[in-house]
Amino acid sequence: MSTINHHRRRFLQYAALGTFTTTLPGVVFPESRNLNRIPDSAFKPDVEIALTAQTTAIPILPGASTRVFKYTGKLLKGPAGTLKELPGYLGPILNFEQGQKVRLFFYNQLPQPCVTHWHGMHVPQIMDGHPMYAILEGEQYVYEFEVKNPAGTNWYHSHTHELTARQVYQGLAGLITITDEVERKLDLPGGEFDVPLIIQDRSFTPDNQFYYALTMHQRMQGFLGDTILVNGQHNYTIPVKTRAYRLRILNGSNARIYKLGWSDGSPVTAIGTDGGLLARPEIFPYIMLAPAERVELWIDFSGYKPGAELALQTLPYQISSMGMGGGRGRGMGEGQGNRDTIVRFMITEQVSDSPKLPDTLVPIHRLSERAISNPDKVVPINIGMHRMTFNLNGRTFEMLDYMEQEKIPVNTMQKIRISNANSAMGGGMGGGMRGGRGGGMMGMMMAQPHPIHLHGQQFQILSRKPGYADSVYATVKDGFINNGWKDTVLVMPGEEIEIIKPFGDYTGLFLYHCHNLEHEDMGMMRNFFVG
Questions:
Q1: What pLDDT does residue 444 have?
Q2: Which residue of 237, 355, 443, 494 is 20 to 30 Å from 56, comparing CA positions?
Q3: Which H/E stretch holds residue 422?
Q4: CA 179/CA 147 separation, integer angstroms
């Protein structure tokens, strides 16, 4: 296996001097601190947006306002509905159309470095928000890309090395919606009936400030807040009419996994996932939603009378054999898997007209193993642990580092096997407490679910193989959406998941990592070198 740590050292030396060099074949690095600081005159945008990351104070709970990091946006060019502001601390919703050329002027007014990742978007390396491109306070970075994704729900957030968890927790996140001609023909609920729901958990100090202080246990499990916020608001209630709605749901939490279900036990109807709409609606008793995952739900309130209330809840589940909520006691902040209300819908008005749920949605070409470019090779993503740090394929993150097995030829289709068996069992490649201490309490700490996110193009799930079909897995197994396009997949302890992913169009370094943001900041992140 090859490494390029010597290139990384050279890169950091040049970074300290304020200049950069191109050291990797096919990878575009700044020749100076001016890379992407000014627009490309050859790029002709349909949409131009000024997006600023800054500090401000926003009222969230009764009493004192909360100091936050916030994206603020201004539309410079494009359709009037391109930006939609939310009332809380989250960034504006960016509404794009497939085929649009978008230019974003990103300004960093934070007292620390920052870079923005367009999560789920298929864009070139230098537009993807790799942490190597973080800019300092007072600097500008110009993102320019064509919207190649189909209709769906993506998002944007900070991706700053070792600061991602804190910066996202402080508020640096926002939603992206994309429309296209195929979606418009479906006549899905739109306008006020197309509702975004960004779910996050936060903890507060007595004076209403975000509380974020990591103990070793919180580093290992990820930081779990004790208060659920939706669209940046507490005890969120939405007035609705007796008709159908489209709910675009993002799990924007650092680490918390939600088991989404209706308070009256009604089945959950999914019409979309990370990569866009499904081929047809799918019915679930509940849906598991890990950090960074999105799901689009169809809910029809026509069977309810004005004055009635329906709540979207997170239902009880287990994530390890230590017991419900991880065996940490009571309260959201003490573990995962407890019942809690996320958002309430209050039926306030009776109406007679409502769209009907389509039988089919969008055509999806189902990829098979016959499409794999090199069928004899499987790209591994093995989840492990060493010295109290989670890793991938036995290594933690180095800014420009990649191994031979992480080299991917451009314009190929790859089969990838993601295995959580190593961390669950406390051993294996790159895993375990390498002194034979993998069992007992330490083994349970390592046996965690991990939401694995791959940058670049979306992928499809080929298969799921649970490591053990016990009562723990039984509490979550019926809530996984395995069809459609994905960019993040929750891998349970002992589980092995095979996916098929295209690596088209763009060369360079593209990240893959755990989207438990505390795990990511610990180094549970690697590069694919596509070339």
A1: 52
A2: 237
A3: helix 421-425
A4: 10
Task: Report d(CA 74, CA 92) in Å as an integer.
Answer: 9
pLDDT tens digits for range 232-253 = 999 999 999 999 999 999 999 9
As a whole number of angstroms, the distance between CA 441 and CA 425 comes to 12
8-12, 39-43, 267-271, 430-434: segment of lowest average pLDDT? 430-434
| CA-based nearest residue to 159, from 112, 201, 118 | 118
Cα 168 from Cα 133, distance rounded (Å): 17
Indicate the fold that domain 36-182 takes in CATH. Answer: Immunoglobulin-like (2.60.40)
Q: Residue 319 is which amino acid?
A: I
Q: How far apart are the first and last CA of the chain?
A: 17
Nearest to 284 by CA among 484, 472, 478, 486: 478
Task: Look at residue 186 and give its three-state secondary structure.
Answer: coil
Specify the pLDDT at position 72: 98
The amino acid occupying position 151 is A
Q: Which two structure tokens, joined as six digits, stand for 512?
A: 């893959």
Kindly state the tokens that stand for 455: 């940058």
108 touches 53 (CB < 8 A):
yes
Question: Using CA atoms, how far apart are residues 398 and 391, in angstroms rounded to an integer?
Answer: 12
What are the distances in angstroms from CA 397 to CA 8, 22, 105, 272, 343?
Answer: 12, 20, 28, 32, 37
Q: Residue with structure tokens 């309260």?
A: 331
The Cα–Cα gap between 154 and 174 comes to 9
Predicted pLDDT at 404 = 97
| Residue 22 pLDDT > 90 | no
By DSSP bridging, strand 508-514 and strand 525-530 are antiparallel
Contacts of 427 (CB under 8 A, 6+ apart): 438
Q: Are 104 and 51 in contact (CB under 8 A)?
A: yes
> Residue 1: its pLDDT value, please?
36
Q: Retrieve residue 371's tokens.
A: 């499409």
pLDDT 10s digits, 158-200: 999 999 999 999 999 999 999 999 999 999 999 999 999 999 9
What is the H or E stretch that residue 520 is in?
Answer: helix 517-522
Instruction: Tell the burial category of 360 from Cβ atoms under 10 Å away from its Cβ (0-12, 13-18, 19+).
Output: exposed
CATH class of 191-349: mainly beta
| DSSP code at position 427 | -
Q: Please say whether the beta carbons of 137 and 108 come within 8 A.
A: yes
CA dist 77 and 72 (Å) reads 16
Q: Which residues contact 330 (CB under 8 A, 6 or more apart)?
A: 338
Of the pLDDT bands very low, low, confident and very high (cuts 50, 70, 90), residue 387 is: confident
pLDDT at 434 exceeding the cut of 80? no
Nearest-angstrom CA–CA distance, 453 and 514 = 6
Helix (H, G, I), strand (E, B) or coil at 339: coil
Supply the CATH classification number for the domain 369-530: 2.60.40.420
d(CA 385, CA 213): 22
Instruction: Name the residue ranges covered by the structural domains of the chain.
Output: 36-182, 191-349, 369-530
Q: What is the DSSP letter of 334?
A: G
Return the structure tokens found at 468. Answer: 């053990």
Q: Among residues 231, 304, 311, which one has the least CA distance to residue 265?
A: 311
